[in-house]
Amino acid sequence: MQTGIKRMASSASNIYKSPALTHELVAKCSTTRARASILTLPHGVVQLPIFMPVATQASLKGITPEQLEETGCMLCLNNTYHLGLKPGQEVLDAIGGAHKLQGWDRNILTDSGGFQMVSLLKLATITEKGVEFLSPHDGTPMLLTPEHSMSLQNSIGSDIMMQLDDVLVTTSPDKARMREAMERSVRWLDRCIKAHKKPESQNLFCIIQGGLDLEMRRECCREMLARDTPGIAIGGLSGGEAKADYCRVVATCTEMLPDLKPRYVMGIGYPEDLVVSVALGADMFDCVWPTRTARFGNGVTKHGVLNMRNKKYAHDFSPVEEDCKCMVCKPTAEGGMGVTRAFIHHNASKETVAAHLLTIHNVFYQLNLMRQIREAIIEDRFPTFVRQFFAWLYADKAEYPEWAVGALKGVGIDLQSE
Questions:
Q1: Mean pLDDT across the chain
Q2: Is residue 394 part of a domain?
Q3: pLDDT at 348
Q4: Which of 111, 126, 144, 366 is least surrounded, with the fewest CB atoms within 10 Å of its CB?
Q5: Domain identity same for 370 and 230
Q6: Residue 261 · residue 16 · CB < 8 Å
Q7: Catalytically annotated residues
């Protein structure tokens, strides 16, 4: 440990253990709710807070598992719904799970499949049994139950698996339906716990629901915490709600959650969202945005998103981001590829290589941002880091988003002060 870094002494009071998970709280910001911790899973150690890239079909589009490893990724997402359809449970059982299928020996988190049912399939119907939908392949009626979701995720062999929950967009005005979804999610968690066949090697996380109703969220927190799962997710967000409302929900939930369990906010990936959410006390995040935006020719940097299709980059021979240590930006003399903005611009419109290169860079950027956040928390200079982050991202304080200013002020960081 470096000299001058403040770290909590290891003791039973700051370590949580379950059969397949150990979570050690390493440091807490003295101003905000930000935390740094070590999450030990069956396929290796994960430093929190963390961003998790989404490998929907057991791969990140356009890059190999080896290239993903080179970014420093220790935990990525697979999609239960898609893997259940193809290659299917029989193939997963035959090969021994998704780790072997994709040649990935690090950790995997899988969602339950419920969100995809509702968001991708317009004809999905939620009943107490589960999610009823029509097969996208041949139109035959299908049913995803909590028991089936657990069976699929047991076959996938993910290190972290999510309960099947009743997902409703936060902007829904139907309070009765929102309460039904929240209460059903609790009942479905009970069914998931009962159906989970491998608790000694796979960790089941609960998902807190309740829309934007803070009291409903608190009620759900109490019910979910009583089930004592190894980790806790805050779900149903990133669905079109105002960012200020999002922050209120996250802050309300983290205030109730135990220190010693990892906290996962689902579907979050914009850099400023990550920074603010860590300040509010969250540890884990995932989103398709960094990889999806790469396929549109966009590179993520500390100064914002650069559209490499813009003709102004045609004669720009600098890397996507100066001083970036990803394999794309790093000079050839340092073992990298030394790729320039001009090269990516040249290929961005028609060639897939640009999307591949930007995917590597963007994933590295997200992971490195979380590494910087973690280091700042451990050294107890997180508020200073946050101010510098926003100063890099926006040319003037007048441009700072009001929701971020308000949320950070609520945990002790005044972005507008000198």
A1: 94
A2: no
A3: 94
A4: 126
A5: no
A6: yes
A7: 111, 286
